[in-house]
Amino acid sequence: MLSNTQSSGQAHNSHASLKKSSARDDALFANRLARHHDELRWLYMELYDNGSMFAELTDQMKYFFDARPQALRKLDAEREGRAWYRNSDLLGMQMYVDNFAGTLRGIEEHLGYLERIGVNYIHLMPFLDTPEDKSRSDGGYAVSDFRRVKPEFGTMNDLAHLAEKCHSRGISLCMDFVMNHTSDEHEWAQRARRGEGEYMSRYFFTDNQALIDRYYRDVPQVFPTTAPGHFTYLPELRQCVMTQFYPYQWDLNYRNPRVFNEMMYNFLYLANQGIDIFRLDAVPYIWKQFGTNCRNLPQVHSIVRMMRMIGEVVCPGIALLGEVVMAPVEVVPYFGTVEKPECHMLYNVTTMATTWSSVACRDTRLLRSQLEIVCSLPREYTFLNYLRCHDDIGWGLDYATLSHWGMKEVEHKRYLNDYFQGFTEGSVSRGELYNADPVTGDARFCGTTASMCGIEAAGFENNEAAMQAAIRKDIMLHAYLLTQSGLPIIYSGDEVAQVNDYTYKDDPEKADDSRYIHRSPFNWKLVKNIDKKNTVQHHVFTAIQKLEEIRRSNDVFDADADVAIVDYSDPAILWITRHTGKKTLYAVFNFSDETREVWMPQEASYTNLIDGKTGKFASFSLDSWDFAWWLM
């Protein structure tokens, strides 16, 4: 047992160590803030011209910095100044908490399963508190409290515990940060509804019909068929409130510095729970300026840039993922510049939609063109690539280019929707339309990857040949996904070829939303088939697992590799090359129903990365919906 003198000295040394550590932390924060202070203040004052609110912001940044757990500070130190999110060993999976494991604690129990396939980035679909009435939650995007987990999922302590367990395994967590609006049940909205001016100023209220009419004239509607309009009338206030998405989602007024500050505090609070990646939901919409279309305004970029700097000061281990579902020319600016970066990553949504158009048309020309554009961008620009996600597929394609090949927009959209529903001759896809407009004929499409590839149809018909072709197509598309530069994301269930679930129609709260056809609970029974040879699940799971192992162990897949698209004569062939050092990968994909003979650039020795065999040849045969990874 220590003597009183020893005990006192030990306590003194410990206290001195804490003071020393605190001094180091203060210096670290001061240095980080100094790097960004002038630009941060300039942008803030340009938007708000409010020095006291800026001072409050920096004070709160210090508060959240001091409150940041030591384990997360250590992670910050490891990641600061490193583009860790560009590592070629990253593989993501998107999932709903309740569908995958019921609760946040339930997800912990299945981390081993995720590690088995190589997943080390988990995107948890919205889990913050929303109205109990699911018809008013928009799948979790109508947030009632940014600091409370939905009770049925767990608590904030459960979230922090999950993050800790994930980090111990080298797994990062991503969440949706809903910036544009709150639920009408959020405290701010409730107080605004009671007529409290301070809280009304955090939204957009008006009783000016001329102004509303002008807004309708200038601003496109988000959901013109399912949720038409931009404003919702509140009889108790005799005013309208802006609700661009749904009537129960009130748009936040970022012209008010209080809104910006409070949302940044929510952002930092969640970062301190262990969130690594923040998906900035609907970010192009957050600044409203009457007389414009209220999309992609310069002030949006100022806000994202400030958010990037705030993160680099308080929690530099996190990354921002921008959800910008628009044409590439409108997406790229959200990266910012090398000197003044904004988002760390952006969704490659255009390539996703064009990929499925290529599947339906057996024609990769447009896909090649768009991939060439991506390849020409600075390597620092990191895209998140995916085949499917939680949402529908909208056919926002480059119709100006398609028209040169005789593909007209209306007819082409109709063909795609018919093809993926299985209505056209030769189609093996199954799925349903979403948000169909009977006037324009426009619609979006819903279905799982497996069902779109033909696994559902082949199983229903008990057609073994069709099943083998469908499995090849599914695996080929995942190989194509992993060949692209950026972060690949798999939607939960795709790794075991889970097909469409039509039982959502029996649930009155879901029946009107066909997106639930691919938002069904994860079928854990399918996991039991992974180790059973000759099952669909075994073929798909082990193939993706092997592809990911190859990707991690070969430097041709590194983010800094030179990537190019080959202008091959056959439009059904997509050919991607990746070059680093003395190695070149020839990744060739057959988007057709027939076997193709493919000619290499020269007769040489090539190694098949799939089976490790090497051979010398000038051409090779590629089966329908198959691929090859040749290394020279």
Molecular structure report:
By secondary structure, the protein is of the alpha/beta class. The strands form six sheets. It has an eight-stranded parallel beta barrel. A hairpin with a 4-residue loop joins strand 8 and strand 9. The N and C termini lie far apart (68 Å).
Largest sheet report: 8 strands, parallel, barrel
Helical fraction: 40-55%
> Which term fits the overall shape?
globular
- The number of distinct β-strands equals 23
Number of helices: 22
The helix/strand class is alpha/beta
Tell me the radius of gyration: 26 Å
β-strand percent reads 15-25%
Set down the secondary structure blueprint.
Blueprint: H1 4-48, H2 51-67, H3 70-79, E1 92-95, H4 97-101, H5 104-109, H6 111-117, E2 121-124, E3 128-129, E4 145-149, H7 156-168, E5 172-178, E6 181-183, H8 187-193, H9 197-200, E7 205-206, H10 209-218, E8 231-234, E9 239-242, E10 249-251, H11 257-271, E11 277-281, H12 298-314, E12 319-322, H13 328-331, E13 345-347, H14 349-361, H15 365-376, E14 382-386, H16 399-402, H17 409-421, E15 432-434, E16 444-446, H18 449-453, H19 455-461, H20 464-483, E17 487-491, H21 524-527, H22 536-553, E18 562-565, E19 573-580, E20 583-590, E21 596-608, E22 614-622, E23 627-631
Parallel strand pairs: 1-2, 1-17, 2-5, 5-11, 11-12, 12-13, 13-14, 14-17
Antiparallel strand pairs: 3-4, 6-10, 7-9, 8-9, 15-16, 18-19, 19-20, 20-23, 21-22, 21-23
Helix pairs in contact: 1-2, 1-12, 2-11, 14-15, 19-20, 20-22
Short account of what is shown:
With 632 residues, the chain is an alpha/beta fold. The protein is built from 22 helices and 23 strands. β21 and β22 (614-622) form a beta hairpin.
